[in-house]
Amino acid sequence: MATVVAHRGPDAHGTWVDGSVGLGHRRLAILDLSARGNQPMASQDGRYEIVFNGEIYNFRALRSALEARGETFTTTGDTEVVLSAFRRDGVASFSTLNGMFAIAIWDRHEERLVLARDRFGQKPLYLHRRAHALVFGSEIKSILATGRSPRELDWAGLHEFCWFGATLGARTLFGQIEKLLPGHHLSFDRSGATSAAFWSIENVRTRTDSVEDATARVRDLLDRAVERHLESDVPVGVFLSGGIDSSALALLAARYRGPGLATYSVSFDFDPGELARARVVATQAHANHHELNVRGTDIAEVVRTLIHHHDQPFGDAANIPLFLLARQLGGAVKVVLQGDGGDEIFAGYRRYNVLGFARAWQLAARIAPLRFLAGRRSGQRLERFLRAIGSRDAGRRMALLLTEESASRSPVRLLGAAVRDQVARTDPFARYGEFDARLRDLDVVQRMLHTDASILLPDVFCEKVDRATMAQGLEVRLPFLDTELTDYVLGLPSNYKVHRLQKKWLLRRALRGTVPDEILDAPKRGFGVPYGAWLRGPLRALMEEALLHGRSAREGLVDVVACRRAIDEHVGGRLDHGFLLYKMLELALWAEEYL
User: Fold this and answer.
1) b/e string for 268-278 if b means 16 or more Cβ within 10 A?
2) What angle do CA 281, 465, 533 make, to 5 degrees?
3) Which CATH class name applies to 224-347+451-495?
4) Does CATH number 3.60.20.10 belong to domain 4-199?
5) Which site in 18, 268, 406, 482 is 20 to 30 Å from 384, CA atoms measured?
6) Where are the domains of the chain?
7) Element containing residue 328 per DSSP (H, E)
8) What is the mean pLDDT of residues 449-467?
């Protein structure tokens, strides 16, 4: 989606004028509101026009339902279906869309622009609002290219980035550029801009099915989700890591595509992956299996490149292997299925187990020698966890369980003094507090699951997947975020997902007989990106130049003395500051290019 500039007010005499800019590698469409240049798709009556980034997986079913109501179609794709549904039902139509999308619709009669973004934020949509104008686009750089938005820091966004490696909710690191929240639509006309949710996680229907019924239902819903996500005009492959989620996708996809389904497994020079497990699954699926070895060469250049594609510093270094993998595919495949979302929907992280015994851990936190642990590298992780679980504020507890930073030492200590003063006036945990309040009626594990689905998925994982792969022209689809599947699973009791300390209990149960037992019963193997080691090796020179001598050091964005101390402690092996230093490196490199 390109940038569109829309004006209202007496200077524009009620007309909407263009200011279109399309940059980057993502699919491009130009909406020209003054009827000059390239045109979006128009409705048959000429009233509505649409630009659309994404995929709607249930568009065939929606089309049939619309045809039954008298609608006719001139194309065979999903865009006209989205437009026709909106013409019939307005913003209520967005809740019927099962897919990933960022949508802009112009109503010529009402002189109104309507934007919408999918419920988990799989596709980005940014805004710059002014008194008489709205600028929006799929990339921040395209908004900046209009010259209408100043390049100023958002202090609250910077505070969140220091803790979590990303800005949360509507914030970006630019003070006057925001994200449209997932599951929301926005209308802009002569009276101004208003936004509202068309889907909200607290309105998910509670499910009371028996375990047996839930198992059968999950099995069926996941199967249908994969079938829908295979809908494509080009061949679809599967990223097969060898874990439960990707193995399920490969084996279910093979039911519909038959022998020869393209699967891709990868090992990196910094992580061997799970090639042996992936081979077992590929053999069972009769797949056309590919094994790629990706070398992490020129890491410094990749880091810079990814900042350019994110338009913001991004602290989850897992975007690096995704980018490298997409680059190595070299256009051989255009669409792949990936297992992201399974851990957040079905409870695949250790913290969900831990929260079930929060009181016992909180007692341990009160008696543990936390100060002693904090000063030793071997005890850093335990100290961080005990401080997090020991927090009396539930929102803060959830936030601290999701960051590698410790409550004992704020990560803003590496910022310059004047910058620290500014961020100190903001609350980096406010977004978590908001969801804690909204989900207060849920048990502690379910609250964490729903909060992860509302914050971690859109602000970190979907951002990571979309930017790292679309930078290489590769479309990644996430069947575990299918609307029908998530509507059902999110409403199931938390003890169906975490049962007797076993993570993903219900999913494992549903996949028994489909996925080999040796995959289902294997311990979870996390994917580790060695940014800590890179900062001692191939990224060290870049880090020291950026943090000790670069523009951010000279202009006070970072504190040179504090950075020098942290670098020495990290490089010398006394303490692990990898996550913090990587974020500060990202921040400094971003500031050089964007501020």
Assistant:
1) bebbebbbebb
2) 85
3) alpha beta
4) yes
5) 268
6) 4-199, 224-347+451-495, 530-595
7) helix 319-329
8) 97
